[in-house]
Amino acid sequence: MKKLIFILAYTAAALAIFSWSASAKNERLTLLLNGQYTDKLTEATEQMNELEQEVRKVLLYQDHTAAEEPLGNIWRLSSEIRNNISSLPLDREFSSEWMNYLTRLGDYADLASTGAIPQEKWGKALGNAAANLDQFSTEWSSATQGMFAGGTGPENWFAQVESEKPDKRWADLGQAVKTYSESDFPLTASEHDEQKKKDLEHLEDQPISRDDALSRFKKLFPEYEGATVHVSESEPDAPYPFYHIRFQDGARIGYADFTVRGGHLLSLLVERPSGKGTMPEAEIRKLAEDFLRQLGYEDLVYEESRENSHFWHLSFVRIDPDTGGKVFADGVQVKLAKDNGEVLGVNAMEYIQKEVLEAQPVKPFDPEEFFTDGTQVQSEELGYTANRELVQRLCHLLVVTKKTGGRTDTYRLMVDTETGEVLKSELLR
Questions:
Q1: Which sequence spans correspond to the domains of the chain?
Q2: Which residues form the signal peptide (predicted)?
Q3: CB atoms within 10 A of CB 330
Q4: pTM of the model
Q5: Percentage of residues in the chain with pLDDT exceeding 90?
Q6: How far apart are CA 429 and CA 423, in angstroms?
Q7: CATH code linked to domain 367-428
Q8: What percent of the chain has pLDDT over 70?
Q9: Residue closest to 220 by CA, chosen among 293, 299, 300, 311
Q10: Per-residue pLDDT at 419 exceeds 80
Q11: Three-state secondary structure along 100-121?
């Protein structure tokens, strides 16, 4: 009897200690995420104000050279804001509309800087954008005020994001941004085709059930077998139907989205405390490649990587089987933890619905005739990029160096294999 009492008392004490430890870890995670999200929200707000100023500034100039700097800043800021917004637990419909608007604004500025859009056309569009951004900034401040204050934690954030009746402020804000997008940057015929790809309109796979999506999630991520999981379906007015799987496993919280048609993994994001130690990049890369093969993505090759203190971000691109060219528009990005190589993020949106590539002749290309004396070709392969009409074109993908004024510059160029037009030119630093 005494042994039984001792065992029961010991078990109760152990459970109490475990409960206290788990609670403390969750509290630390909440504080950590609160700080991260608050920083990103503050940074995004500051960048929005700066973006509006740059849009207004560019309207001063008729001279193309003078407009280059603010147009470049518009492209840069729109990209930076997208990166911050994508990592915040905001209303999904609003995030989708705002990310789309920022993408179109940045792309428009980039095209304007190259002279692809006449000054009078981009001047009118950016004039509308300036007025809309001014109105948006006020509504944004109201919607985000105190979002991560007062000890609000992951459960509250996800409950708001998953709510079938989203906060009216976010719904109104998302609708306003949609109106801005349609009025400021109306789609061309080519852009309509591009939008159809983004909206996954041409997926022909058979639909899967909610249980099938959950089984797919558990098969891909067996480490979350014991996690608390909640599965919801996208709203009827979403661009495409998908299942949203939210999960929490101890200190880990995250979500995964799967298409209803075919059960393709669209995206994954996991938040957890960073551990100690650092795995070699080669091992991280192999883990990413193994994971992509597990998804069934056999036609991807590694393209590039970048790192920060705790993560590796790896990019992969699809290889066209007919030409061997890299299709950069059909890429997958994978985020892995440095400490143990755990997959913490995936973006497979671009890859799921592959580009339709038309046959194109490859005319003889002589670098010695194409470049000036002293230009050295370091590498040459084939790749696809979009021209001004957003049509994918097969190109000679070249990395060249040129010594000028005592300094050697490295350039990455994409030259159309049929027309010889330089579709992309990038100075690598």
A1: 14-186, 210-352, 367-428
A2: 1-24
A3: 24
A4: 0.59
A5: 27
A6: 20
A7: 3.10.450.40
A8: 81
A9: 293
A10: yes
A11: HHHHHHHHHHHHHHCCCCCHHH
CB 387 within 8 A of CB 423: yes
- What tokens appear for 26 in the block? 């969750």
**pLDDT tens per residue, range 138-193:** 777 777 776 666 555 556 655 555 555 556 666 777 777 777 776 777 655 445 45
Q: Are 167 and 91 in contact (CB under 8 A)?
A: yes
pLDDT band at residue 415 using 50, 70 and 90 as cut-offs: very high
pLDDT one-digit tens code per residue, 69-88: 888 898 888 888 887 777 77
Report in angstroms the alpha-carbon separations of 95 from 72, 140, 173, 274. Answer: 23, 12, 10, 27
**Token pair for residue 236?**
């009827």
**115: how many CB neighbours lie within 10 A of its CB?**
9
List C-alpha distances in Å: 181 to 109, 176, 237: 14, 9, 17
* Burial (CB count <10 Å: 0-12, 13-18, 19+), residue 213: buried
CB 144 within 8 A of CB 45: yes
Residues in the chain: 429
Cβ proximity of 207 and 233 under 8 Å: no
133, 105 in Cβ contact below 8 A? no
Distance CA(105)–CA(102), nearest Å, equals 5
Tokens 């979403």, residue? 238
